[in-house]
Amino acid sequence: ELAGSGGASTLHSTAIGYLAGAGSSGAGNIVAVGWDAGSGITGTSGSVVALGTSAGKGATTSDKSIFVGYQAGMGATGADHSIFLGSDAGNGATSAVNSFFVGNQSGQGATDAFQSQFIGNGAGGVATLASQSEFIGNQAGGLSTGANNSIFIGYLAGYNDTTLNNAGGHTSILIGDNSSTGGFSDSVAIG
Fold it and tell me: What's the pTM?
């Protein structure tokens, strides 16, 4: 199938690569480069850049976003104004408006992670209820739950951590490899 074929309402778009941009609808101003990049994008008014095999594939409601890397942003929903850089970065992420995920598998499968920055391989991966958070370090904040308004810095900082920060204005700060909140909101741990 030719690049861009099967797309409907994809005005002012550029597709380079087998199946790039194919099957997209209701989207315009898309740049899709790579095998299957940007295919099936729907419900987007436009300005999406998808670079890499399957980057941005099936993304919905991802206006003015940039997906770079193998499967970066694939299946992402509610990722307007976001940047996902790295293999599988933001793959399957939901409710990640205004987010910045950098690193392989950073933010992969994250839910309710709007206005968050996840930097490092696996940072914020499969995190839930992690909006307005900064996770910096390999796997920092990975598998965390309820870590809204948190700052986790260091290798495995906040990994598999469960807090109650999502219950109204709480904040947690972790600095150091393998640091944890111990399940307490409004906590600070250094070391």
Answer: 0.93
